[in-house]
C-alpha cells in the first residue's frame, strides 16, 4: 500500500518512528548512533505531523500544494520503508533471550525491500537521509515562496522538475553522510568551487537516471539551484 496524505498516515508514521526509537534503545542503548538518528527522525516527523494538520498550511493550498504533496508523499514512503525494515530487525533481535543476544551480532547484513543487502550502519545512513530530506522540505515550505531557479525548474516540468527533487534528495544524502557539517555548510562549501559542484552532483544525478547530455544542457540551472538552496 502506498503512502496516503491524511493526517492519520503521518500519525502512524510518527508512531512507527517512535517504536524504532524504543526498540533501538533496548537493542543498542540510549546513546547509540542508531538511537540518536531514529530520535532525530521522530522529532522531524512530529514537526511534519503538526504542519500537515494546519488548515492554513501551504500544503492545503490548491495553487501550489499538489506538487508539494506529491513530493512529500514520496519522501514519506521512502521513510516508512526504511523504518519498517529497521523495526522488524530490532524487534526480532530484542525477542531473543539474553543468552542468545549476548552471542548474536546485531550488525549483520539484512535484505532491504528491493533486494539490496545492507547492514544496520547503512540503514542508519538511510534514516539520516530521510531526516535531512524531510527537514529540507519543511524548511523550504516555511519560507513560503519558491526561489527563482526552483520556480523555473518547476515551471518547465518534465525532467527539470524531477531533477529538482533529485537534487534535494542528493543534498539530504550528502548531509546524512556528513552530519556535523550542517545543511547550510555542505551547500556553501561549494560556493566558490564550480568544479566541485558539477563533479559531485553530476555523478549522483547520473545514478538517479539522468543522461549526461541532459545534465550538460542544464548545467548552469543545476549549479544555480544548488547555490539557491545554500542561500535560503
TrEMBL record:
The organism's place on the tree of life at top rank: Eukaryota
Protein name: Fungal N-terminal domain-containing protein
Amino acid at each position: 500500500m502506498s503512502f496516503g496524505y491524511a493526517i492519520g498516515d503521518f500519525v502512524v508514521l510518527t508512531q512507527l518512528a517512535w517504536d524504532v526509537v524504543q526498540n533501538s534503545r533496548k537493542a543498542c542503548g540510549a546513546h547509540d548512533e542508531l538511537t540518536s538518528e531514529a530520535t532525530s527522525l521522530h522529532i522531524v516527523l512530529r514537526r511534519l505531523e503538526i504542519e500537515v494538520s494546519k488548515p492554513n498550511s501551504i500544503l492545503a493550498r490548491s495553487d501550489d500544494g499538489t506538487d508539494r504533496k506529491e513530493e512529500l508523499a514520496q519522501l514519506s514512503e521512502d521513510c516508512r520503508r526504511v523504518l519498517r525494515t529497521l523495526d522488524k530487525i530490532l524487534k526480532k533481535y530484542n525477542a531473543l533471550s539474553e543468552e542468545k543476544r549476548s552471542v548474536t551480532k546485531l550488525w549483520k547484513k539484512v535484505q532491504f525491500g528491493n533486494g539490496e543487502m545492507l547492514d544496520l550502519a547503512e540503514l542508519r545512513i538511510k534514516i539520516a537521509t530521510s531526516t535531512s530530506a524531510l527537514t529540507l522540505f519543511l524548511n523550504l515550505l516555511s519560507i513560503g515562496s519558491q526561489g527563482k531557479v526552483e520556480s523555473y525548474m518547476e515551471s518547465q516540468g518534465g525532467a527539470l522538475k524531477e531533477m529538482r527533487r533529485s537534487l534535494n534528495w542528493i543534498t539530504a544524502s550528502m548531509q546524512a553522510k556528513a552530519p556535523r557539517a550542517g545543511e547550510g555548510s555542505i551547500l556553501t562549501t561549494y560556493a566558490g568551487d564550480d568544479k566541485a559542484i558539477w563533479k559531485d552532483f553530476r555523478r549522483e544525478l547520473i545514478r538517479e537516471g539522468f543522461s549526461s547530455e541532459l545534465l550538460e544542457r542544464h548545467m548552469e540551472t543545476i549549479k544555480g539551484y544548488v547555490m539557491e538552496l545554500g542561500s535560503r
